[in-house]
Amino acid sequence: MTILVTGAAGFIGYHVSRALLARGDRVLGIDNLNDYYPVSLKRDRVAEIERNHADGFRFQAVDFADHVALEAALAGTEIESIVHLGAQAGVRYSIDNPRAYAQANLVGHLNMLEVGRQRQVRHLVYASSSSVYGGNDTMPFRVEDRVDHPLSLYAATKKADELMSETYAHLYRLPLTGLRFFTVYGPWGRPDMAMWLFTDAILHDRPIKVFNNGDMRRDFTYIDDIVAGIVAALDNAPPDDNAEKAGGSRSPHRVYNIGNHRSEELGRLIDLIEGACGKPAIRDLQPMQAGDVKETYADISAIQRDLGFAPATTIDTGVPRFVEWFRGYHGI
User: Fold this and answer.
1) What pTM was estimated for this model as a whole?
2) Residue 250 belongs to domain spanning
């Protein structure tokens, strides 16, 4: 039996695939290798997995929003469970490219729910986002909070994914777990994220854009902690017992925050990157961007209670690890 990982060439998908393979699972990774950021990085991630796990890993370049191509790619493979991490990511990109989000995050998510239903998989774990909390100013964000006022189309698509998942759990008793990720960072990260952008700019003596004049806070979560949470969720499918679960469902569907449970000042993050790079940043203070939020902070009590999730990596440890990887990858 095989675990299907979507977005396997992406940041989180790469790390999850490696973790599953390391413990002996077989993984079919799929990704459409789009050019939202350099495809070379995505190919390098896949090549790294294939070098270290040639026997248990198979990769297919396919767009899961194309149900015909998806079915062809999965033909002949028995799938036990699904880790659905593929999506069109990014808050700001959704303002200029809304149709990309409707296709990947709405149509694509529906297609994966259909795969889960038709193949009667044991469990489907999918990526949601802390962006669903929108302008909520009650901290920390709790899964019990209302999330009816998204500030970006990206956030709206992720909320829609949760609603579609609830429907499939109710109608077809498909076990589902949604994970609201909080600002994930670490080696092999995404070039559109602040950690990468700041590190690259500082090392090359370029200004960094610091939005809302630096008055921002984020719950930065190191990739190893995120992977531990995803794997714990995958191994613990929600029971179909009519009991209320995290997120409020009485169907076999849970929704968890997965973060570090620390809201850090943006300025402190920059200070740590400066220290790891060994040079100061040139800070270009900017107003708040459309669709962005001032602060995120995860209440992780539900996932701690149910799955024993315990993030262990502070930004004091994680930021230098990322900068070290970044220097090595780019030969700086």
Assistant:
1) 0.95
2) 2-182+221-261+298-311
